[in-house]
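Below is one record:
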Amino acid sequence: MPRGDQLQGTLELLILKTLERGPNHGFGITLHVETVSDGLLRLEEGSLYPALHRLEKHKLVQGEWRQTEKARRARFYTLTPSGRRRLEEAETSWTAVSRGVRKVLRFA
C-alpha cells in the first residue's frame, strides 16, 4: 500500500505536469488528468486544493485570481522556475520507480 508521502508526491507530479502545459485552475487540472488518463485517475477536491496551496506555499506554483472562459472567478496556477525543476526531479524519480515495479512484475 502506498505511503502518504508517496501519494502526495504522485499528486504533486500530476499537478505540476498538467501546469507545464500552461496556467490552469483547479477544475481544469482535474478535468485534464481525468481526460488524459481515460478516467483512470481522479483528483478529489479534498486532495487537490490542499496540494495546490502546499505547492504555492513552497513557491512551486504561483496563483492569481482571474475569470474563466465562462466568466467565473477562479484561481489560476502557473509553474514557477522552482516548480519546473521539481517537475523534472519528480519525473526522473517516477520513471525509476515505475521501471523497478515493471521489473518486479515481470519476474514475480
Q: What stands out?
A: The chain has one domain: 4-107.
